[in-house]
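Quick log. Single chain, no ligands specified.
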Amino acid sequence: MADRIAMIAVCIVEDYLAWCGNRVLFRPPELPLRLALAYLYMIAGDDPRVGPKTREPFDELWREMMRGLDSERHFDGYVRSTMATACYRKIRRMVRLPETREIEDAIARMRKVGRKDG
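-> predicted structure:
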């Protein structure tokens, strides 16, 4: 099974992804996201689809999160969310945490344990 710390890092990135396209809930990136991305980069390997390990999806995800939402552009939140999600999927492949039912269920269990109501 996947590294527990990697799964926690994935949860952190997913939380920021959920906020990144929403004007009301948007939170600028903070230390937890930076640490999660740094850890995921450290354990990343070559991407089977793209090739050798690269920082590009990590840097691009960070840039999308840092970019403020443009109130003049109607679909800016959607574009940011789409770009960030594409980077996130590349990162998941690089850290060998594919979006499989088994791994998604394990992440969901981790989230439930972390909640007071779970």
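The longest helix spans residues 76-94.
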